[in-house]
Amino acid sequence: MRWSRTRTRTRTRPRRRARDRGRDRGQVAIEYLGFLPILLLVGLAGIQVGVIAYAAQQAGTGARAAARAASADDPDHVLPDPEAAGKTAMSDWVARRSEVSESGGVATVTVHIPSLVPFWDFDDVRRTATMPVPRKDQP
């Protein structure tokens, strides 16, 4: 603040602010652009966690269906084979990325998880289910 000739105070700050205001334009937009990649990565990571949980749930469903089909006493072969039963029980996009194997009533489903976040790869999800297989000598 400075004094004028009449000894009244005048403020010089508003003039300086009006002059500097032109330089501050767009500052928020630049800050937002700098923060946007971080915000996108956090959003994609949240979606990725959901994809992993959904793939694990679908793998468990497919393993139970494959084990159930393997343990069924089906002399007429009306039921599908365990691999087809496991893939049918899962949603289409998960079934395309899965492998179903069965051995003695134990079914294992392995699902490859797609990566949404760049440079972040995930291991496959593997679920196993067991059903009792009837023996041939039991009625």
TrEMBL record:
Signal peptide: none
TadE-like domain span: 26-68
Top-level taxon: Bacteria
Compositional bias segments (type: Basic residues): 1-20
Region (Disordered): 1-23, 65-86
InterPro entries given in the database record: TadE-like_dom
Pfam families referenced in this protein's UniProt entry, alphabetically: TadE
Coiled coil, from the record: none
Identification of the protein by name: Septum site-determining protein
Gene source species: Streptomyces laurentii
